[in-house]
Amino acid sequence: MTSTTLRCAIVGTGDAARLHAEAILAHPAAELSAVTSLNLDVARAFAKTWGEPAVYDSLESLLAEAAPDVVLLCTPPATHADAALAAFAAGAHVICEKPPATSLVDVRRMEAAARAAGREFAVVFQQRSGTATQHVQQLLRSGAVGRPLVAQCNTLWYRPDAYFDVPWRGTWASEGAGTLLQHGIHQVDLLNYLAGPWAAASGRLWRLARDTETEDTATGTIQFASGLIAQVTSTVLAPRQSSAIRIDTELATIELEHLYGHGHANWRITPAPDVPEAVAAGWQLPEAEVPSGHTPILHGVLDALATGSALPDIATGASESFGLLTAMYQSAQDDGRLVRPDELTADNAATRSLRAEVTELRPEVTELRPDASQTTEIFG
């Protein structure tokens, strides 16, 4: 570590900001020096809880007066690109909550602005973090468990109607897209991190129960360069919530099931019946455990910024991951056809917006409650 303390500023003081503040205050080379939010009362209350950083009434005043080294964006996704570009122009590094933006064009703009300014751009894909993830990625990429063949990637969450009462939720303009982008991004990104790069993807968007502009359920297929074929489901309609990945290889089944974060206990590696025990023993997770979460990924980024070293790969490659989601949304617009990465190289409609056709499958509700006379007749 250098002797310099990184001055960190948080933009947006909602739920995600708490996790960022915890990580900053626990890091030996960082301090939380400034915050801003649209609601200044919320920002002031947040500041009192997290070390009394200075509170600013706008990002512009924060950048000009606090001169932060690192800006952490915890605002709705539609605001990320402009805020990141302003931070880079002011000489700050940027750590951005997921999704990094609402279009692939904006993600690429952010990456290009970081390069031009000589600054770093990190995205919080926290599911990539943890010792189990790193171990499983090595097993897959080294060929230790044989060639990956088929996979399932499920984000089965539950969000009631009231969740979408927040004005910016469920809209193309503010969120950019629905559950595939807002929720499924974690597991899709993790699968790509473990088994990528992706080679083609298809998708379909469905609105089954929630009163939103965007999808409440999405399905799709991903082909990976390795030959792996994965089926993807993301929904906000699942009462028993689960986040799960299953990868079947020539020699093993690798499974992860959790909800919002995972440790070693959430992973299981099952060898094929003919795999020798001595071989399978070499696949065991390491004894020392670090769970996934905001702290390990943010500390990895802050370590790199403090020492001037390269960012860890768990925080990079935003356009690769976002490109995969873009392909699935583009496919939904084109009746489910496979979309390949080279189709997303230009600045076109697909890369500028994820807006796509959503199939409405909410039938009219049939009244099944009997009237009083029927009740008497049936139940006495």
UniProtKB/TrEMBL annotation:
InterPro entries: Gfo/Idh/MocA-like_OxRdtase_N (IPR000683), Gfo/Idh/MocA_Oxidoreductase (IPR052515), GFO_IDH_MocA-like_dom (IPR055170), NAD(P)-bd_dom_sf (IPR036291). GO terms for molecular function: nucleotide binding. Keywords: NAD. SUPFAM superfamilies: Glyceraldehyde-3-phosphate dehydrogenase-like, C-terminal domain, NAD(P)-binding Rossmann-fold domains. Pfam families: GFO_IDH_MocA (PF01408), GFO_IDH_MocA_C3 (PF22725). Residues 134-254 form the GFO/IDH/MocA-like oxidoreductase domain. This is Gfo/Idh/MocA family oxidoreductase.
